[in-house]
Every structure is written in C-alpha cells, then in structure tokens.
Specification:
Blueprint (H helix, E strand, L loop, with lengths): L2 E5 L3 H13 L3 E5 L2 H8 L8 E5 L7 H11 L5 E6 L3 H9 L4 E5 L3 H18 L22 H14 L5 E5 L5 H10 L8 E5 L5 H9 E2 L11 E2 L1 H4 L4 E5 L6 H13 L1 E3 L6 E3 L3 E6 L3 H6 L5 H7 L2 E5 L9 H16 L5 E2 L1 H9 L5 H15 L4 E2 L20 H7 L4 H23 L4 H8 L3 H10 L12
Parallel strand pairs: 1-2, 1-3, 3-4, 4-5, 6-13, 6-14, 7-10, 10-13, 15-16
Antiparallel strand pairs: 8-9, 11-12
Helix pairs in contact: 2-3, 6-7, 13-15, 16-17, 17-18, 18-19
Bound molecules: adenosine-5'-triphosphate (ATP) and magnesium ion.
Adenosine-5'-triphosphate binds next to helix 7 and helix 15.
Length: about 475
C-alpha cells in the first residue's frame, strides 16, 4: 500500500507535496481542511501508509491529527510539516509520537526520503512473518529467521526487552543490528515512547556532545537557539547508539557518567536534567578488541555490555535466505508496483549459495534491483546481478569442469580433466598416508598393484612417492 494522506490548509503546499510524492510512486489524497481529514481518518480501516499534516491549521491543528492517529491507527506514521524556526514545536510533535518532521521550505529529496522511510516502517509494522507462534502482541516479530541462531536472538530480545538493562548488539554490516534494536524497543514497556537514534560514525566528533546532550543559546558561535539533545528526546524511551565504537574517547567518559547517573547538563547549560532512558548500542567492530587496543574505555564497555547479542552473518544461516527472499519480494512488489509470485529454483539456489558479504542489506539491494528488472511473475537467475554468480565470495556454484566446458573445451575432455584432478587428489593423499608404499596404497584404493602403477603413469605421478607439493 503506497497511499498517503496529506492535509494542509494551504492549497499550494498540498499541490507541491502531491506532485513530489506522485513522482516518487505514491498515490496521494489531499485535504485542505483538518476537519475533513479527521473525518476520513475516523473510518475503521484507512488505506494509508503515512499521514502528512501541517502543524498550524485553523480548526484542528496538526497535533490534534497526530493525537487522533495515535488513538485510532497507531501503526500509521504521521509526518509533521512545520515552519522554519519552530523547531521546538517539531520536538513536541516527536515527543508525542510523530514519525518525523519536515520544515518549510522543504526539498523534494528530503520529503520523499522521509515518506519512503515512513512507508517502510508502516509495512514492517504490518508484516507478520511466518515464524511467529501464538497471537499475543509480544509474539509478533519483525525479525525473520527460522535458523536456530536467529530464533535464539528473538528469544533473548523478548526477554531483555522487558528489563531496563543496556544491550550491546554486535554483528557484521547489514546483519540487522538496527532492526533488532528497534525490536527491543517495540517489545518493551517503552513502546509508546520515542525510539531515538544517533549514528556515532556519521556525526562529526566535535558535534557529538551537543547532539547527545543538546545546548543552550549562546553556548558556542552559531548556537542562536537552545536545542535539546538525543538524550532528552529519548526520555522514557530508548536511545540507540549506533556504531558506538566510533565514539571519541573523551566523549566515552561523558557518556559513561550520564548512563551511570541518569542526569546531565546541556552544553553551556547550568541546569541538571534528569532522564530515564534505555540504552541499546551497536557496533560491527569487536569491542573487546577495541578495549584491548586502547580505543574504547573498558568501564564503558562493561556498562554497555550488560546483555550482548551477536547477530550471525547470513552465510552462517542460509536456511533463512528463502523466507527473506519472499519477504523482500512482497516489499518490493508493493514499492515498485510489480507482481512477482515466485522464484524459480535455479535463481533460489544461486541466492542460497552466494556468501553475502554485505548480509541482509546486500540481499535486499540485490532483490530490489532484480525485481525492478524482472518481467512476468517469476523471478529468474537472468534478473540477478553478476556479483552473485562470481568470485571466491560464492560457494562453488559450478565445478571447474563445467566452467571449462562453457569456455569451449569439448564435453568429454572437460569431464576427463576434472576426473583426473579428483583421481590425482585421492591417490596422492592415499600415497602420503601409506608413506609411498604402492602395495598398501593399491589395497586402500581397491586397485591392483599393476592398475595403480598404470594410473600413476597416466596422471604423470612418480611411483617413487608422493609429490611434495601436497
Ligand atoms: N532478520 C531480518 N528480517 C527482516 N529484515 C531484516 C532482518 N535483518 C535485517 N533486515 C533488513 O535488512 C536491512 C539491514 O538491516 P540493519 O540496517 O538493521 O542492519 P545493520 O546491522 O544495522 O547494518 P549496518 O551495519 O550496515 O548499519 C534493513 O532493511 C532491515 O530491515
Ligand atoms: Mg546499522
């Protein structure tokens, strides 16, 4: 479902937003009166994946629309439009559960990116993967994976979600760390409070402090207004510290203090602010190693690592690939307006044997491209990009002989070459085991002494003993 409701009393604004979203592949219903929009949104089932509302409107304002949506359709993300310079009201909206906000004047790319994210979130909230059991709210999970390793992850997530403990999630890039962090939040009592994220690798070092703790007006050049930091925004909710290994050492000390004391001051501020925040941190580095090598404080490491969750790479849980493939097919069918119903067996086999160095994120990207390229209702190998057939990254999808044949070597020659390679390997190994003794080797292989000697000659092996190259 890619339909968005937009409400703003200014017709030129709704006109522009509609045009932008339609270009991005969304269907758009426009309302210029909040009363009319609320009437529509009061219907028991509404076909929207997101609602975009102006904050200031005569009659009912954007906060009323937000409150209504939280009550009646909490799964539909609400994006607030605010005027430039009214960041405080945007922050209020976020605290009340708005998905995000856009400041006027806005850029086409920005608004599309936000709505795209909102639509994805809506879809995730409404997807019930097949691996769940029971029907209570807590049994629903967004994490797909029937492999024992992922089932264990899901089990731990549910258990720790209900405690206030800090969780450290580690795993290679693209293994689902952010998804699991969100899942912990969703299953916790804080689910209706904010989930706030900071990517420590993406924020310049000198800005991390003010991003985390906020600042007061005049705290530094350019601080023309005061601004709350992520800790304040996350009050009563969850703060996700992504790529935590990238946090500079001196900030690590400050962070530790705040986690321990649950209070801090804004940069340039005197007032102590108390907060109640659940911390979830993630990294794709080996944090224990970072500690050993002096790049990460050990005391902070122990603080964060109260519960640790290791997400296995996709190549170690290949049984999950098929479900993930079908999950992404559904997602991209909706997004790209396609109707893929199944995957042919060769294509599925290729996807299941590739080693996925970029894990689920890479699988997702490959499938988006493949689905876009596909014609008809079945996904085929021909739709897949070359990378998944290639390289040492992949399990041997075909033998050297098969490749030689396709490179133009005649069928019989290609097969003989491959057979000889296997014979040589076995014989050499056997010779080694039997210290070059021909009689014993022949016995072990079930050949006559004479037969083995002929084979050795044919394969160009000396009968004096094994080649040292083995
Ligand atoms: N088990 C899963 N089931 C369904 N979707 C998943 C699963 N794991 C990851 N994804 C999806 O794969 C993509 C990458 O996941 P995510 O961003 O959580 O990974 P990450 O470990 O944070 O990656 P990075 O280290 O690159 O930041 C997301 O779109 C996410 O929704
Ligand atoms: Mg991530």
């Amino acid at each position: 479902m890619r339909r968005v409701l937009v409400v703003d009393d200014e017709r030129n604004i709704t006109f522009v937003i509609k045009a932008i979203l339609e270009r991005g592949g969304f269907e758009v219903d426009v309302f210029n009166s909040s009363v009319e929009a609320l009437k529509r949104l009061s219907e028991p089932r509404v076909p929207y994946c997101a609602v975009v509302t102006d904050l200031y409107m005569p009659d009912q304002d954007g906060m009323a629309v937000l409150a209504h949506m939280k009550d009646t359709h909490p799964d539909i993300p609400v994006v607030m439009i605010t005027a430039f310079g009214t960041v405080d009201s945007a922050v209020q909206a976020l605290k009340k559960g708005a998905f995000d906000y856009i400041t006027k004047p806005f850029e086409q790319g920005e608004i599309l990116a936000i709505i795209e994210k909102a639509a994805n979130t809506f879809q995730l909230r409404n997807t019930e993967p097949s691996n769940e059991s029971g029907d209570s709210r807590l049994s629903k999970t967004l994490v797909i994976g029937k492999s024992p390793a992922m089932q264990e992850v899901v089990r731990i997530v549910r258990k720790v979600a209900l405690s206030p403990s800090t969780v450290l999630i580690t795993g290679e890039s693209g293994t689902g760390k952010e998804l699991v962090a969100l899942e912990i939040h969703r299953h916790s009592e804080r689910v209706h409070q904010p989930f706030i994220k900071i990517n420590c690798a993406a924020v310049p070092h000198h800005l991390i402090e003010s991003e985390l703790f906020g600042y007061e007006k005049g705290a530094f050049t350019g601080a023309v207004n005061s601004k709350p930091g992520r800790f304040e925004l996350a009050h009563e909710g969850t703060l996700f510290l992504d790529e935590v290994a990238e946090m500079p050492l001196e900030m690590q000390a400050k962070l530790l203090r705040v986690i321990q004391e649950a209070e801090f001051e804004r940069v340039g501020g005197l007032q102590t602010i108390k907060i109640n925040v659940r911390i979830v941190a993630a990294t794709n580095k080996d944090l224990a190693k970072e500690v050993r090598e002096g790049r990460f404080r050990d005391d902070l490491y122990y603080r964060l690592n109260v519960v640790s969750l290791l997400l296995p790479p996709l190549r170690e849980r290949r049984v999950d690939i098929e479900d993930l493939v079908y999950f992404f097919i559904k997602k991209f069918n909706d997004k790209l307006g396609k109707r893929i119903e199944s995957v042919d067996s060769v294509c599925l086999k290729t996807l299941c044997s590739y080693s996925w160095p970029g894990n689920i994120r890479q699988l997702e990207n490959v499938l988006e491209r493949a689905i876009l390229m596909s014609e008809g209702s079945i996904l085929r190998s021909i739709d897949l990009p070359e990378e998944v057939f290639r390289g040492e990254a992949s399990l041997p999808a075909s033998s050297p002989a098969a490749e030689a044949f396709y490179d133009g070597v005649p069928f019989k020659d290609a097969v003989r070459k491959q057979t000889q390679a296997i014979e040589r390997e076995i014989i050499e190994k056997s010779l080694l085991e039997n210290e070059g003794n021909i009689t014993r080797t022949a016995e072990r292989l079930g050949l006559s002494r004479k037969g083995l000697q002929l084979k050795l000659k044919e394969l160009g092996l000396s009968s004096q003993g094994p080649r040292t190259s083995l």
